[in-house]
Amino acid sequence: MSSEKLSNISDYPRWLFAQECTFVAGADRIEILPPPTLPEIAFAGRSNVGKSSLINALLGRNSLARVSHTPGRTQQLNFFLLGKRFYIVDMPGYGYAAASKAKIKIWSRLIQDYLKGRVPLKRVFLLIDSRHGFKGSDEAVMEELDKAAVSYQIVLTKSDKSTPTHLDELITSLTAKLKKHPAAFPTPLLTSSHEKEGLEPLRKVIAELVG
Ligand SMILES: Nc1nc2c(ncn2[C@@H]2O[C@H](COP(=O)(O)OP(=O)(O)OP(=O)(O)O)[C@@H](O)[C@H]2O)c(=O)[nH]1
Ligand SMILES: [Mg+2]
Description:
Elements: H1 12-17, E1 21-27, E2 40-45, H2 51-59, E3 77-82, E4 86-90, H3 101-117, E5 121-129, H4 136-148, E6 152-157, H5 164-178, E7 189-190, H6 199-210
Parallel strand pairs: 2-4, 2-5, 5-6, 6-7
Antiparallel strand pairs: 1-3, 3-4
Helix pairs in contact: 3-4
Bound molecules: guanosine-5'-triphosphate and magnesium ion.
Guanosine-5'-triphosphate is lined by residues 45, 47-53, 67-69, 71-74, 92-93, 157-158, 160-161, 192-194.
């Protein structure tokens, strides 16, 4: 970032997310990930929780990451290079019961291997659908991330679909739960990709992480 590009440092997240973003790789095996040369920020969560939609919303693009009404749309680790500085990684969802057993096994292995063993991974945003809250599969992923000491933060999605009272209760119970998870960031973020809510705070967190 050059000083003439930015007169005010608080504009940095907005500047960063307006940079060119390109799809670089879709990896269905851990052996073919891009070289670990740049920081990575990953979006994980149950199938259909809104990972790809949130990535598109953050980037202000409609269809960079593929979105679908049917769960199981994202089937690879998709790497998007932003501003030649860092990768945003759109992950396949977990907990998608309708896929074949063979596919579930391959995806689960891919997700686990990536989340536990990737050196440049700066933070995992673990998305939770605000209508449904925490599920057993989310708890299992959190325990894995705690064990591997990978920093993660909960992001509630689809806030447009819930009442303020429900959201307040959910945030209170989540915040209490997070205290028991050593690698978790203590406070969840609230977002709606459709209403473009909560995007600026999330961009700011990411900009701070990738420098
Ligand atoms: N109301 C509402 N719907 C949303 C929001 N974000 C995503 N959706 C919808 O949720 C569905 C799933 O969105 P995706 O972004 O494909 O979810 P995903 O987590 O990437 O799904 P997989 O790739 O299958 O794991 C789509 O029908 C989206 O339109 C939101 O903020 N509000
Ligand atoms: Mg997806």
